[in-house]
Design brief:
The protein has 132 residues and is an alpha/beta fold. The protein is built from 3 helices and 8 strands. Helix 1 runs antiparallel to helix 2, helix 1 packs across helix 3 and helix 2 crosses helix 3.
């Protein structure tokens, strides 16, 4: 029986729902990029951290981080070569304390914790839960 997967910490969720190839309207499906995979690419390729430092930020070992990073790179490469859409999906992650999720539209956003009465910025719903 495999070990249970420990949720990975994501500092800030991706600012996109999907990327689609421009020009050729015949995309050949899509690839789901998990939040933790996005975070791995961001930490190494954008923030220029090594695997050990990035693993500490995400609360996982260096080896686990390396596996997540490798999987993310393969997904992005596959999407670029095979002309596929990249969609961001939540996956097995948790966000910082100030993030909330809308029960109606699924949007994830952050707000100051002092503000207890607020609506979803996307659909204006009041059905909001604190993201864990």
């Amino acid at each position: 029986m495999p070990r249970r997967i420990i949720p990975r910490k994501v500092v800030f969720p991706p600012k996109f729902k999907s990327f689609m190839p421009l020009g050729d309207s015949k995309t050949k499906g899509f690839i789901e990029l998990l939040y933790e995979e996005y975070e791995a690419i961001k930490l190494v390729d954008y923030d220029m951290l090594n695997h050990l430092e990035a693993g500490k930020i995400m609360g996982i070992s260096r080896a686990t981080f390396a596996r997540i990073y490798e999987k993310a790179r393969r997904k992005v490469a596959s999407a670029l070569v095979e002309n596929k859409e990249i969609r961001s999906v939540f996956g097995n992650a948790f966000l910082n304390e100030n993030f909330f999720r809308c029960n109606d539209c699924g949007a994830i956003f952050n707000m100051p914790s002092e503000n207890e009465n607020f609506n979803c910025p996307v659909c204006k719903s009041i059905s909001i839960i604190k993201n864990k």
